[in-house]
Amino acid sequence: MKKFFSLLLVLASLQYVSALEKTVGSRLVGEVSLTCDKPGDWTFDLGISETDGKEVVTVSMKAPSPQTPPQFTLNIRTPQISAPNIWTVQQYDRCQIKPDWGVNYRSNLATHMPVFTFFNNDNTNTLTIAASECLREINSAIGLREENCMLDARMRYFQKPESPIDSYTTKIILDKRPVFWSDAVREAVDWMTAESGVKPVEAPDAAFDPLYSSWYQFHQNVFAQPIEEECRQAAALGMKTIIVDDGWQTDDNNRGYAYTGDWEVSKNRFPDMAAHVRKVHDTGMKYMLWYSVPFIGRKSKNFDRFKGKYLREDYEKGSLDPRFPEVREFLCNLFENDMKRYGYDGFKLDFIDSFNTDNDPALADNFAGRDIKSIPEAVDRLMSDIYSRLKAINPNVLIEFRQAYTGPAIRQYGNMLRVGDCPGDMHANRMGIAALRLTSGNTAVHADMLEWNPGESPEDAARNILSSIFGVVQYSLMLRDLPENHKRMITHWIDFSQKHRNTLLHSSFRPYNPESGYPIIEAEANDEKIMAVYLVNTVVPAGKVDKPLYILNASGTSGIVADIEGAKKAEIYNLYGKKVNTIKISDGIRRIPIPNSGYALIR
Predict the structure, then answer these.
(1) Which of 46, 340, 379, 402 could form a disulfide with 22 if both were Cys (CB 3.0 to 4.6 A apart)?
(2) 21 phi, psi to nearest 5 deg
(3) For the residues of 447-493, what is the DSSP string, one character each?
(4) Which helix (DSSP H) or strand (DSSP E) does residue 195 occupy?
């Protein structure tokens, strides 16, 4: 018995000795450490360098032969000084710093991205942490260490199965410059994109056009003739593209996914899909179609075909495992053949973030039949193949993704990123657009589809549009049922958004105070500046007027207070774009009588 316990002690001591820890000193956060419980044959290097007032931590690891990489963690702990808020892609609508023991921010190719910014209420960056890894999964516990109020960050790597490798390098950037918080976020994302080596695709001009979606009003109850009629009305209002959502492939109206997976056009709903698409094209609109990419419904003919090739299953569907080459080929052929057959201009590819599992079925059969071990790597291969094959058919193919699959890697095969579903919620749309604008580079950022009750006042209906105007606005209203004053209002704001498209969508972008729900957002180009105010009794920091300044009133009340300098006059417009007044302006804090959902042009 003594020998047995002695052996246990020896084994425990060997395991303890085998654990690895490395530390480097940081001017910005004190120190950064790396820990690895089971390094095995792997050797690690940990270094730190400084560039442009930021620090970059580099982790390098090597093995004598290709093998599964070990789990390791990067650790940062620094005092919470002037940092009452945190902004993350996962939690952009709630800037609460949570205890370090109660939070995990998961990121990979198809889920969020590892960017974290602590900031003060004056919009000043306090500490931004970002990782260069945007393909593989990172689990980040970033929050408050209760003892002595310390900001604690632990970023865990390789917790999911990976293909064998013999080397790996990754980096973390630390930024404590007292810059505007969103500037720190945007620079961190630009750095991540460059370091990761991914090359986002260019978004064609059509990706920035106003869009109509069938989803919120039709849901699955879509038919060719009503869609064609809505397209004629949408085109007359200035919309350029339609997305026909779920329902075209089934006669079921239960809004589930039990019938997905065969992707055969319902002859009852669309007797001649190619002719239907041509009729929509005749209105001047492009045509996109929805697919839930991973799902195969239990009531589809394909469900048994892919038995054993699902990442997980539930009562109505399975989620395909893209590590099987035949799964990838099935999906590539599907989109390629349908685009050729029906003349679609693009696709809404939904649920990419459902290519995941907590209990990997591949472990039980030693990855049999799979040519890739890592799920993110397989998704990357799948989406790259889909995009390249569709682009070969149409160089300007439109591909829409939505939150939460965002970030540099996913932008390699999508050119439209939409806010996650938030029906009737203008505030969520505004916050989601802000998050996507800061993290999506030149990719077209879209609002979630707008809807409101036809009985709403045109002023309050317009606030939905103004809350989304710094993104591409998608509409999902039954246009034939809208009052004429709603249509006039939509026509005006679509016209405004297109006349100022460069400023609104392609220029400098700053959202203020995310901890308060972004009460002010501004965009500035070389020739003009546009500011929108969303909260009553908010003072707009207009500053010196050295170019035409537009102030949009989305506060829900009449009149806006602005702190302004160098202005001479303000032209006042209502929600239909009609000029209703011209007033003189002097320096200082001034109340400007902008109508509810109208705007002022200040010169």
Answers:
(1) 46
(2) -145, 130
(3) PPPB---TTS-HHHHHHHHHTTTTSB-EE-S-GGGS-HHHHHHHHHH
(4) helix 181-196
Q: Could you tell me the sign of the dihedral formed by the alpha carbons of 144, 23, 124, 181, in that order?
A: negative
User: Is pLDDT above 90 for 194?
Assistant: yes
125 DSSP 8-state letter:
E
Q: What is the DSSP string of 223-234?
A: -HHHHHHHHHHH
| One-letter amino acid for residue 283 of the chain | T
CA dihedral 471, 474, 477, 479 (to 10 degrees): 110
∠ Cα 181 186 188 (to 5°): 95
Query: How many CA atoms are closer than 13 Å to the CA of 110, on its beta-carbon side?
Result: 22
pTM score, whole prediction: 0.94
Q: How far apart are CA 599 and CA 531, in angstroms?
A: 10
| Structural domain spans, the chain | 19-196, 206-506, 508-602
167-187 pLDDT, tens digit each = 999 999 999 999 999 999 999
Alpha-carbon separation of residue 200 from 136, 407, 408, 411 (angstroms): 17, 10, 7, 5
Using N-to-C axis directions, what is the helix angle for 484-499 and 224-237, rounded to 10°?
60
- The two three-digit tokens of residue 496, written as one number: 């405004």
- Largest Cα separation within the chain, whole Å, is 96
* Tens-digit pLDDT profile for residues 316-369: 999 999 999 999 999 999 999 999 999 999 999 999 999 999 899 999 999 999
Strand partners, 173: 56, 130
pLDDT one-digit tens code per residue, 538-592: 999 999 999 999 999 999 999 999 999 999 999 999 999 999 999 999 999 999 9
Cα dist from 544 to 178, 416, 523, 564, 593, whole Å:
22, 35, 15, 6, 19
pLDDT higher than 60, residue 9: no
Cβ-Cβ contacts under 8 Å for 213 (sequence gap 6 or more): 242, 243, 245, 449, 474, 475, 476
What percent helix, strand, coil does the chain show, rounded to 5? Answer: 30, 30, 40
Query: What's the rounded mean pLDDT across residues 118-134?
Result: 97
What do you get for the CA distance between the two ends of the chain, in Å?
90
User: Counting every residue, how long is the chain?
Assistant: 603
**The amino acid at 232:** R
The second-level CATH assignment, the architecture, of 206-506 is Alpha-Beta Barrel (3.20)
Q: Are 487 and 465 in contact (CB under 8 A)?
A: no
CA atoms within 13 A on the CB side of 61: 25
- What proportion of the chain, given as a percentage, has pLDDT over 70? 97
Q: Model confidence over 53-80: pLDDT tens digits? A: 999 999 999 999 999 999 999 999 999 9
